[in-house]
Write a structure and sequence with these properties.
Blueprint lengths: L2 H22 L4 H8 L1 H13 L8 H24 L2 H23 L6 H17 L8 H28 L2 H24 L9 H24 L4 H8 L2 H12 L6 H20 L2
Helix pairs in contact: 1-9, 1-10, 1-11, 2-4, 2-8, 2-9, 3-8, 4-7, 4-8, 5-6, 5-7, 5-11, 5-12, 6-12, 7-8, 10-12, 11-12
């Protein structure tokens, strides 16, 4: 595995909790995540228009995926309203491969391998550990974080099917960014009324920075996958949950305990096992 692939995976692992930290530190998390979706959408627009459009068979999947991404954004913003970065982020990250694996078992009768069962136990144990102890995650934030993970698992599954019908992965991904950027403002208006954006405010700049960082994180990881094996690179990316605890401590004043670090490491190891078992 090349040094460039390792570096890109680690960059993605650091940037992902970084944009989550900007979201967590926002004055209004739903407003922040709504505005931050605009940056990937605006940057994707000229490239998406220049490329061939996704084939018609993939558009129902794109629309369903956009709806699920809105659900993810709403639940993630609400989770950060009630819990810290070092509590919510590991639960969301860990619950996705757990839910995908369990969904395959229940709906597709796919029997997990021994490694997958190890991953299931580790993720479940790590999340349970975060919910216990002196600085435990609140029950409400835990439920909201798991809900956000369910939406991610949903749109990942839908995109996995839709991209095969699109005729081009890049075009599908770009239109996914575009539709998400269009759908979130409508969702915000439906829930809150008018969406007000002051381009001079610090909150707007913070949200734009979060959107740009999320896009760079995605590009970095996709680039890493083009240079190296999926399993080890996915393992490196799962260190993001440990970085989340550190970033929350350094920049958001969150408690950093040995218990929380160990819990995050357990979730990361379990997510890696589940991801590696799937490839």
């Amino acid at each position: 595995m090349s040094a460039a692939a390792i570096a890109l995976a680690l960059v993605s692992a650091i940037l992902q909790p970084t944009w989550n930290a900007l979201l967590r530190g926002g004055a209004d998390r739903l407003w922040t995540i709504t505005v931050m979706t605009a940056v990937p959408a605006v940057l994707s627009l000229p490239i998406a228009l220049a490329l061939p459009h996704p084939l018609s068979a993939s558009w129902p999947y794109l629309l369903v995926s956009a709806s699920l991404q809105v659900g993810y954004s709403v639940f993630l913003a609400a989770a950060y309203q009630h819990g810290g970065l070092g509590q919510v982020f590991p639960v969301v990250r860990g619950s996705v491969p757990l839910l995908v694996t369990m969904g395959g078992l229940v709906f597709a009768h796919q029997h997990p391998s021994a490694l997958a069962w190890v991953g299931i136990l580790l993720v479940a144990g790590g999340i349970l550990s975060l919910a216990l102890g002196r600085h435990r995650t609140t029950f409400k934030s835990l439920l909201l974080a798991v809900g956000a993970g369910m939406f991610v698992a949903g749109y990942v599954t839908v995109d996995g099917l839709g991209v095969r019908l699109a005729g081009g992965a890049r075009s599908y991904a770009l239109w996914s960014f575009l539709l998400d950027g269009l759908a979130m403002p409508f969702a915000f208006v439906a829930m809150r009324g008018r969406l007000r954006i002051d381009v001079r405010s610090a909150e707007t700049w913070k949200a734009n920075a979060a959107g740009l960082i999320s896009l760079v994180s995605y590009i970095a990881f996709v680039s890493a996958l083009s240079l190296g094996p999926i399993g080890p690179l996915s393992a490196l990316r799962e260190t993001s949950v440990v970085f989340a605890a550190l970033i929350g401590w350094l920049f958001l004043g969150e408690q950093l305990t040995v218990h929380r670090l160990v819990s995050c490491a357990i979730v990361a190891l379990g997510a890696f096992c589940l991801g590696h078992a799937a490839h």
